[in-house]
Automatic annotation (TrEMBL):
GO molecular function, one term: endonuclease activity
Signal sequence segment: 1-15
A Pfam short name: Exo_endo_phos
UniProt keyword terms in alphabetical order: Endonuclease, Exonuclease, Hydrolase, Nuclease, Signal
CDD domains membership: YhcR_OBF_like
Gene3D superfamilies according to UniProt: Endonuclease/exonuclease/phosphatase (3.60.10.10)
Organism from which the protein derives: Westerdykella ornata
Endonuclease/exonuclease/phosphatase domain: residues covered: 301-598
Protein name (database record): Endonuclease/exonuclease/phosphatase family protein-like protein
């Protein structure tokens, strides 16, 4: 004991290096201690402090040789390139308990200025550092960042030793405080309200799609190789119109952690060098045959649509131009007739009439529609909006089979035939699983035409599962991160799947199409259970869509798929040539041109008996 204490004193007396302060873990071994005689060269200055790099870097990949020195006026008389000796207090700072703490030196005291005009050159990421890991975020995720249960451990408590070659967060943590360069950056996101934009440099990545975005893929790979670019140090602002796949000018900046993410604060604003050549996606290639062996099905989350929505005509135009007016459309997020006015109005007849009229005036067909208004304020979403799912359909081609619409509280049942007790009707609306969430709408349809050969009939289930609100950051303290609402979606997926299973129990050749906003990825537990219980097949699989092209949404660094179609074996059967396309009309454009936060999709399916 005595010997150890003596050793510690000796270490302190003979000047700590910055890498010793950082140490090989997330938290500094000196956290809370007052230190002095710390030598560093100033690499950058910010509004509230400076970044300091050790003149004697160690050769340990785990320990950053740089650190942030927090002090509002501390840098006033200092310049980049000055070599200084300082003292201060080592702190682990975070503005929110769900974030990873940032090691910094606070209450700095300038002990000595040694020299000025020293050269500071940035570390080129992937060249002067180890390569950014491309799949795993943290050793605490147990190999799957989406594993359930979530939040089994906290980085701030477990304080794991960094393995920068294996884990993305460990890699970024090992660079905290450093001045770095990102060569040949590509934008992976639209900027958020602060102009923060996700990028990837010229290092090796996984999940790259044809648009040069990074897609979350089936191997629990949520792309830790991406990094966020935050506010520029010179007080300028990042552009607001950056788009997915934009080529950017080289970025130099300092590494930090703030607001839940590792990020680079660039010395000056991001600059777009070139956008993707094809600005807008092509329209779907899938068009209707007008009979049961080739009907087209659209699916579109139209983001809080109501009669007065400025985006209503644009949604209509997307349906006509990009989706080529599918025969039946699964729509989600339709608000009641007076939108978010929080009164007793729940009917969406006027909203849906406005949408179908706009489609007709955009050159599309005259659609009919069906939905079931929810009980007031019971289905979640924007307060007062009473969002629900709805169907638009071409009444000359398909119609509800023996229509008998249920009410908001009527639980649908599968009757012999099979037919439905309510057509359309909601699934188990009183079940707690649907508290403050949309109930799926089940319908049975017949294709209008000759009976006998070519006769078509099918079931549809239109879903909008509970949202991911309340999720924690992929770079957050909780590991695996909190996937907000996952327990609700698990139950919702099970109830929906049980209903589908009951149809198939009465007719294993039933043609069933389930589509909508599942608010979940195909490879995460709720969707695995949904597929497992229902026996339906993921249409992306059936149609052979490449993993990296499976996306309908852009969130943080990832193009990702929240909207899916699942079909029964009778529809998926080989000879039936099921086809499916995601139309990236919203993920590809800038924020201003975005009409909904989701991309729509179109399928072409054979539903003949
Ligand atoms: C400061 O550090 C230097 C080595 O960098 C060492 O020679 C000196 O003794 C230290 N001074 C104090 C007061 O600890
Ligand atoms: C900067 O220098 C000025 C003039 O010497 C002095 O008055 C001021 O206190 C210094 N500021 C800091 C933060 O050291
Ligand atoms: C994770 O769990 C801890 C308790 O172990 C809790 O304090 C924290 O708030 C949770 N984090 C999130 C994001 O829910
Ligand atoms: C909405 O339309 C349905 C079907 O035509 C009708 O039964 C219902 O009464 C309408 N609701 C309102 C409030 O007009």
């Amino acid at each position: 004991m005595a010997a150890l204490r003596l050793l510690a004193l000796t270490t302190l007396a003979s000047a700590l290096t910055i890498s010793q302060i950082n140490g090989p873990k997330y938290l500094s071994p000196y956290a809370g201690q007052t230190v002095s005689n710390i030598t560093g060269i100033i690499t950058a200055k910010g509004p509230n402090g400076i970044w300091l790099r050790s003149p004697t870097p160690d050769r340990d990949d785990r320990t950053s040789d740089s650190i942030y020195v927090f002090g509002k006026t501390f840098g006033a008389n200092l310049t980049v390139g000055d070599a200084i000796v300082i003292g201060g207090k080592v702190e682990e700072y975070r503005s929110n308990k769900d974030y990873v703490p940032l090691t910094e030196i606070a209450s700095p005291v300038l002990e000595r200025k040694i020299s000025s005009g020293n050269e500071v050159s940035p570390l080129v990421i992937g060249k002067d550092t180890v390569k950014p890991p491309t799949e795993q975020f943290s050793s605490l995720d147990g190999g799957d960042v989406f594993a359930v249960p979530n939040n089994v451990s906290l980085i701030s408590v477990r304080n794991p030793t960094l393995e920068p070659k294996k884990y993305g967060m460990d890699f970024w943590e090992s660079l905290n405080g450093e001045l770095v360069t990102v060569k040949k950056p590509t934008a992976l996101s639209k900027p958020n309200n602060y102009g923060d934009t996700w990028v990837v440099g010229d290092w090796k990545v996984t999940g790259r799609n044809k648009r040069d975005g990074l897609t979350m893929t089936n191997k629990a790979d949520a792309n830790p190789e991406a990094i966020l670019i935050g506010s520029p140090l010179d007080g300028s602002s990042n552009p607001k119109t950056t788009k997915l796949g934009d080529e950017l000018a080289e970025i130099m900046g300092v590494f930090t952690y703030a607001f839940g993410f590792y990020r680079i604060l660039p010395t000056t604003a991001l600059k777009v060098v070139q956008s993707q050549k094809q600005a807008l996606p092509s329209a779907t290639s899938l068009t209707s045959e007008g009979k049961c062996d080739g009907l087209t099905f659209g699916a579109y989350n139209v983001e809080n649509l109501w009669t007065q929505s400025a985006h209503l005509p644009k949604v209509a135009s997307h349906i006509v131009t990009y989706l080529k007016s599918p025969d039946l459309i699964f729509v989600q997020e339709v608000q009641d007739d007076n939108g978010e006015t929080n009164d007793a109005v729940v009917s969406a007849n006027q909203t849906l009439a406005a949408l179908t009229a706009a489609i007709a005036s955009a050159g599309g067909p005259q659609y009919a529609f069906t939905d079931i208004a929810p009980s007031d304020d019971k289905d979640g979403g924007a307060p007062g909006g009473n969002i629900r799912v709805a169907y638009l359909y071409k009444p000359s081609l398909v119609r509800l089979y023996k229509p008998n619409p249920g009410g908001a509280l009527d639980a649908n049942e599968v009757l012999d035939g099979p037919t439905l007790k309510y057509n359309p009707g909601r699934i188990d609306p009183a079940n707690n699983a649907w508290t403050a969430s949309r109930k799926p709408l089940v319908a049975q349809w017949e294709v209008i035409g000759k009976k006998g050969k070519g006769e078509g009939s099918f079931f549809t289930v239109n879903v909008h599962f509970g949202s991911k609100g309340g999720s924690s950051s992929l770079h957050g303290d909780a590991r695996p991160p909190v996937n907000g609402g996952v327990e609700d979606r698990m139950q919702q997926a099970e109830l929906t799947a049980q209903f589908i299973k009951a149809i198939l129990a009465k007719d294993r050749n039933a043609r069933i199409i389930t589509a909508g906003d599942f608010n979940e990825f195909a490879f995460v537990e709720p969707m695995k259970r949904f597929a497992g219980i229902s026996g339906l097949e993921d249409l992306d699989e059936v149609a052979g869509i490449q993993d990296v092209e499976r996306y309908t949404y852009l969130f943080d660094m990832n193009t990702q798929q929240l909207d899916h179609m699942y079909v029964s074996a009778a529809v998926a059967k080989k000879g039936r040539k099921a086809r499916y396309e995601h139309v990236h009309i919203n993920t590809w454009v800038d924020s201003e041109a975005q009409v909904s936060d989701h991309d729509p999709s179109v399928a072409k399916l054979d539903v003949c008996v």
